[in-house]
Structure formats: C-alpha cells, structure tokens
Amino acid sequence: MQIYWTKINKIIEETPEVKTYLLDRPEDFSWEEGSHTHFALKGFNAGDKPNRGLIRHMSISTLPHENSIGITTRIKEQCSEFKATLRNLEVGDEVAIFKTHSNIPLKREDKNVYLLSSGVGLATFRPLVLDYFERAENVNKIHSLNIDSSKDFLFTTIFESAPDKKFSSQFVDNREDYYKEVKNLAADQDGQFYIVGSDEFLMENIELLRAQGIQPEQIMLDKRQQQLAEFL
C-alpha cells in the first residue's frame, strides 16, 4: 500500500461549518470522478497499529486537471478528535492519503442521470458534474437534488441550472420537499439514480425509488461491491 504524504496548499471556507482542504497533488497520484480516499492526519501510523481515530474515508471533490486534491468536510463546533485536529491545521501542514478508489464514476449510457445528496455529500458529485460539463457525450441530461437543513448550500456557482448544458439543480431544506421531488424524479423509469449521504439517507431513498419501480441496477451508491448487497 502506497501512502502519499502531501501538504495543504489552501483552505476554503465554503460555509460557516464546511471547509475544503486543497492538497498538493503528488506527481504519480491520479483519480477519476466519484473517487474517495483514506485521508489521514500526522501520527496515524506512529504506533504498531494505525490509529483509526486519525483516519477518515473522504470523497475527493476535485478533478485531476484542477491540480489539487480537494477534501470537503463539515466541521461542527462539537466534533470528533479527527475533526478537531483537522480544524487546527494550516496551509503547509502535512496530511496523508492512500487507498483511493471510485465506486461511482459517471456512466455514459444515453440515460438521464439524477444526483441525490444530503448536505456535504454534494462534494462527491462536484467532479461528476464538472466532468459532464467538459464532455457530455452519452449522457442525456443531469439533474441534481440536494437537501441541507442548514440552508448554507454548497458549490452554488457549479450547481446552478444551465439549460444549454442540459443540467438542472435544486436545493431544498426539508425532508418533505426532498422526498416529494425524489418521487417525481422516479417517474423516469429509465433513469440512473446516484445517491450520496448517510446510510440512513441511502436506505430511505432506495426504499422510495424501489416502491416507484426503479430497479437495483439503476441505483448507484458510493459503496464497495461487497457492501452493495446490504443496501440493494
């Protein structure tokens, strides 16, 4: 297993609770849209066993051509040891990344694509949307639906409806509106539905989509192959 030690080159305050940490990209490090990585803080491998309290599974919110590895995360006032340590890091500090993999690259099968996310889960979809803007081949259209009760919506300059690009985006701040809209989207019986959020959020969406006749093979989750059976 290769561990890449790299430095934070910029910290962006997206909202009062959400930050993006942009990391220098090591020369031989590459990834594709929809990727996640293990993001670790200094000291995680200092002992005989890795300190799992200093490691988190994070989505990469940038594309390789942006030349920085973006990690976008919510840090609340009351937070874990990991988040508290991360909050105190500064530009120039070192972090580690390893075991990078994509479960949800953008499928290009001439279908309509629906991106369903909760809160900061939208960060996983940012690269998919940018990739689609650059190359729209074999995707009919994309619609993004995000729920965030904080009302501090993320990446609003990217997730902005653009009819000329066959892209639409919707933000809601409550479950009732969100699930009503999901039900409407499920009227497209041939669509592809990508879902990112907590396990509970995934299960609620899957249950609703399945009840509307959407088949398991139309539902994409940011989960390893062996985990999919637990959800689908």
Provide keyphrases for this structure:
5 helices; five-stranded parallel sheet; 232 residues; Rossmann fold; alpha/beta; globular
Task: Describe the protein's architecture and organization.
This protein is of the alpha/beta class and 232 residues long. The two termini are 30 Å apart. Helices cover 22% and strands 33% of the residues. The protein is globular, with a radius of gyration of 18 Å. It has a 6-stranded antiparallel β-sheet with strand order 4-3-6-1-2-5. Strands 9-8-7-10-11 form a 5-stranded parallel β-sheet, sandwiched between helices. β10, α4 (199-211) and β11 (219-221) form a beta-alpha-beta unit. It folds into 2 domains: 4-102, Elongation Factor Tu (Ef-tu), domain 3; 111-231, 3-Layer(aba) Sandwich (Rossmann fold), CATH 3.40.50.
Shape: globular
Mean pLDDT: 93
How would you name the CATH homologous superfamily of the largest domain?
A: Nucleotide-binding domain of ferredoxin-NADP reductase (FNR) module
Strand count, sense and barrel status of the largest sheet are: 6 strands, antiparallel
CATH class of the largest domain: Alpha Beta
- Integer-rounded radius of gyration: 18 Å
Number of helices: 5
Amino-to-carboxy terminus distance: 30 Å
What would you say the CATH architecture of the largest domain is?
3-Layer(aba) Sandwich
Strand content: 25-35%
Strand order of the largest sheet: 4-3-6-1-2-5
Unreliable stretches? none
Order of helices and strands: EEEEEHEEHEEHEHEH
How many E strands? Answer: 11
